[in-house]
Amino acid sequence: QYAAPGTEFSGYADGAYVGETPLGPFIYQPHNPFAYKPGGFARGAGHGATFKDKQGQLWHVGTIVISVKNNFERRIGVWRAGIDSDGILRCNTAYGDYPQYLPGQGPGGTEGGFTGWMLLNYNKPVQVSSTLGGYAPNFAVDEDIRTYWSAVSGDKGEWFQTDLGEICTVRAIQVNYADQDAELMGKQEGIYHRYIIECSDDGTDWKVLVERSRNMEDVPHDYIELEPPVRTRYLKIRNIHVPTGKFALSGFRVFGKGNGEVPGRVEDFVVLRGDSERRNAWLKWQTSVDAIGYNISVGIAPGKLYNHIQVYGANQYYFPGMARDQAYYFTIEAFNENGIGERSDPFRVE
């Protein structure tokens, strides 16, 4: 296993060579990179390691790109991995920054990680207590960890509110803080975040849903599962304390299920691979009006579509992840707040 260079790029990935002994000789695995996550909220899966848990499940841990305040600003992600019947190492990053089952929970296996809880507030209406300069409120719901909203202060009482558009079933919330005017450097002890999250059906009458007013932990990416789930429309996070700087959020992400239908099958999906640079291709498709995004799967055979790309707000994608002299297969599926639509038939490119 090796990490290709490019910490600051969303295509940061890990590859693999295969040998019969620890000293080789080694040959390049036909499915590469094997750990790859160039799309979605948190992008990148490189510079990592693969390990086995106590139940025998393989996992891959890698670094996620931010590179806003510093070129090497990163986070750590972990995804299910596996070795197929042909000995190919793979890592499943499909919906890999959506809620996932912990080890020993859920269906299990390389494909059994995703809970099926969908993002409910992508680009939905928001309101805030204040805004610092160009750090606009919608940056907290645009599914990009590198952009963020910031209040004008880090004071108690600053707040952010999101509207799901209708009453939905909410199962989990992820609070992703951003660093704005932070004055702390290096590893710090004794820092913590405090907040409360309220919910409302009408935006007027509120009740406390998540209580973190006495929290003493450093939780820059806090995650809360609601048991039982809650039916609500509006959610508001009120700041009580941040360790330093302003109250800023790169993602206030709400997960669960909407009330409508899943998107239909994506139409007119094509892959255009050039002759001059065969490692790259343009992927294009017809926009689905009922989708918030698309998941593209790619691999070296119809049954080995092991790499995944999550795309929001576009009907094309430039893909630079192919080996020059190898055929590839692509599929696409649309998704929205209600679930995932039908996957297209595999599209082969020579």
Overall description:
The chain has 350 residues and is mainly β. The protein folds into three domains: 2-116, Tachylectin-2, Chain A; 121-257, Galactose-binding domain-like (Jelly Rolls, Sandwich); 270-349, Immunoglobulin-like (Sandwich), CATH 2.60.40.10. It has no helices and 24 strands. It has strands at 2-3, 14-15, 17-19, 26-28, 43-52, 58-65, 74-83, 89-91, 118-119, 126-128, 149-150, 159-177, 194-200, 207-212, 221-241, 248-257, 270-273, 281-284, 293-299, 307-312, 316-319, 328-336, 339-340, 347-349. The strands form six sheets. Strands 9, 10, 11, 12, 13, 14, 15 and 16 form an eight-stranded antiparallel β-sheet that branches. Strands 19, 20, 22, 23 and 24 form a five-stranded antiparallel β-sheet that branches. It is globular and about 60 Å long. It starts with a strand and ends with a strand.
What labels describe this entry?
350 residues; mainly beta; Tachylectin-2, Chain A; Jelly Rolls; Immunoglobulin-like; 3 domains; eight-stranded antiparallel beta sheet; five-stranded antiparallel beta sheet; 0% helix; globular
Quick synopsis:
The protein is built from no helices and 24 strands. It is mainly β and 350 residues long. Strands 9, 10, 11, 12, 13, 14, 15 and 16 form an eight-stranded antiparallel β-sheet that branches. Strands 19, 20, 22, 23 and 24 form a five-stranded antiparallel β-sheet that branches.
